[in-house]
């Protein structure tokens, strides 16, 4: 699956790891669902998704905390570019 295919999927794709599922939920406009999917996960990937979600929400302080937990620099580009970077990396791993 590619990032474009994930974003275009009209129904929840099966077999996705939770972090990718959260990004699909975000692409559907379900911020709360995406946040619920990753909020209790203890992986660096989940922390990165969590950071992105708080950045999207506009909570920069909380986002910075989660970028630190993910061992990632705070994103400065567009949300769309970050969504794509996260999904590309998660799908490749």
Description of the molecule:
- With 93 residues, the chain is mainly alpha-helical.
- The chain has one domain (17-92).
- Helices cover 68% and strands 0% of the residues.
- It has 6 helices and no strands.
- The protein has helices spanning 3-8, 18-27, 31-38, 44-57, 60-70, 79-92.
- α4 (44-57) runs antiparallel to α6.
- The longest helix has 14 residues, at 44-57.
- The chain starts with a helix and ends with a helix.
- The model has no long low-confidence stretch (mean pLDDT 96).
Kindly name the structural category: mainly alpha
Assembly of the depicted chains = single chain
Kindly state the percentage of residues in helix.
Answer: 55-70%
Overall pLDDT, averaged? 96
Count of DSSP-assigned helices: 6
Q: What is the chain-wise order of helices and strands? A: HHHHHH
Low-confidence stretches: none
- Kindly give the count of domains: 1
Q: End-to-end span in angstroms?
A: 12 Å
State which percent range the strand residues make up. under 5%
Main sheet specs: none
Radius of gyration: 12 Å
């Amino acid at each position: 699956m590619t990032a474009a295919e994930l974003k275009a999927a009209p129904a929840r794709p099966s077999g996705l790891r939770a972090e990718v599922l959260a990004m699909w939920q975000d692409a559907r406009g379900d911020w709360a669902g995406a946040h619920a999917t990753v909020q209790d996960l203890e992986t660096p990937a989940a922390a990165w998704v969590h950071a992105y979600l708080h950045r999207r929400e506009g909570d920069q302080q909380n986002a910075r905390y989660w970028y630190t937990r993910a061992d990632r620099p705070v994103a400065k580009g567009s949300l769309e570019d970050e969504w794509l970077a996260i999904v590309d990396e998660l799908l490749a791993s």
